[in-house]
Design goal:
Length: 367
């Protein structure tokens, strides 16, 4: 194996054409063989997604990570997903995120300083560790998962959120749910919790912007966070679709606003959306409220069966952070691996990883 003294810089790839990068990716993969495995999230663009050995939502990809033998795991997704891969894989395995700027704006809406301040404020009103189970959506940084590990909490994904809430209420009477208020509200609503018992906890307001009575009366405190992509969907998009296609069906992701979920025929995670539309009868018509790359791919796959699959909005585009993983970055990290250089490794500090793994293991056991 040829070994470079220093890693190749990304600048060398920035201006390379897509076709050139595709050829380079294939060539590098051939050289790396079984030493490499590529995982791809459903929201990734086809130009990189096509290289994934395994694809799925966060839950499915997390499960793969527990059983991989490859030396290098390249994650086509966003930062928190690569962190989960690092936590669940073996210590000697290397996890790589092709572009470190591929974050998640929703995950960034909660951070440890704010969560710890919220903990102290809630602890002034009631004993946090006896009354509240902290539940973090998997779309969150590893240190927040570690916080949940330390405080008897758990991680959820959009696939298992109701089950995880069930588990959480068996531990304690209330839940602090972060960072996505929409997933928390929809999942709580499915369990029959009244909306007035799911107030928004605004971490930027003293005491979350709530009175002591509101806190005491709450079942789920919903962190004021959301996904910038899903929040753009509107009930009017559904009305317009139904006017044109009265026999059409609507399926949305629970990160979408509450009124969009209420007006949808089906609500569920990306895995659920893919399964439901794929198994539907030929020639059915679907309006889909989730990330554009998934919907575009699904529309193409369903076309031969005469199914119409339409994206919910005219103004929303793809998730801009997911889109940072492009053929240029993938070719760059792979060629570096061929040269014996590891670039963009994601490593969760050991103390954080232990506690974060505790919450992820709780989640995997409860789902
Ligand atoms: O859990 C995931 O992977 C996300 C972010 C969405 C979904 O529903 O799959
Ligand atoms: Fe985060 Fe939303 Fe992008 Fe998913 S679609 S990675 S929640 S910003």
């Amino acid at each position: 194996m040829q070994v470079h003294a220093a890693p190749i810089q990304f600048d060398h790839f920035q201006s390379k054409k897509n076709d050139d990068c595709q050829a380079r990716i294939l060539a590098a993969r051939k050289k790396l063989g079984k030493r490499l495995v590529i995982l791809g999230h459903h929201y990734q663009h086809e130009s990189v997604y096509r290289h994934a050995d395994f694809s799925g939502d966060s839950l499915k990809l997390s499960k793969y990570c527990e059983n991989l033998d490859a030396e290098f795991i390249v994650f086509l997704g966003v930062h928190f997903m690569a962190e989960v891969a690092d936590i669940l894989s073996r210590p000697e395995q290397v996890v790589i995120l092709p572009d470190l700027a591929a974050g998640c704006s929703m995950a960034d809406m909660a951070n440890l300083a704010k969560v710890e301040r919220s903990f102290r404020e809630l602890n002034n009103v009631l004993n946090f560790d006896e009354t509240i189970t902290p539940v973090t959506y998997i779309n969150s940084a590893a240190d927040l998962k570690a916080f949940c590990g330390e405080h008897g909490g758990i991680v959820c994904t959009s696939t298992n959120a109701p089950k995880i809430l069930d588990w959480s209420f068996k531990q304690r009477e209330k839940v602090l749910f972060f960072p996505d208020q929409n997933l928390g509200r929809w999942s709580g609503y499915q369990m029959g919790i009244p909306l007035e018992q799911m107030p928004i906890w605004d971490p930027d307001q003293p005491q979350g912007g709530l009175t002591i009575e509101q806190i005491k009366n709450a079942k789920i405190l919903l962190w004021k966070g959301h996904c910038a992509v899903h929040q753009m969907f509107r009930p009017q998009n559904i009305e317009q679709f139904k006017q044109v296609h009265p026999d059409g069906q609507v399926i949305s992701h629970p990160e979408a606003p509450f009124d969009v979920c209420l007006n949808s025929d089906f609500v569920g995670s990306t895995e659920y959306i893919l399964k439901t539309v794929s198994e539907a009868a030929p020639n059915t018509k679907w309006l889909v409220g989730t990330e554009l790359n998934l919907v575009t791919r699904l529309a193409e796959q369903m076309q031969p069966q005469g199914k119409l699959v339409q994206f919910m909005s005219h103004v929303v585009c793809e998730c801009s952070t997911m889109a940072r993983i492009d053929p240029q970055h993938l070719a760059w990290v792979l060629e570096n691996l061929v040269d014996g250089n590891i670039v963009n490794q994601i490593t969760v500090p050991a103390d954080e990883a232990v506690l974060a793994k505790l919450t992820l293991d709780r989640m995997l056991a409860a789902s």
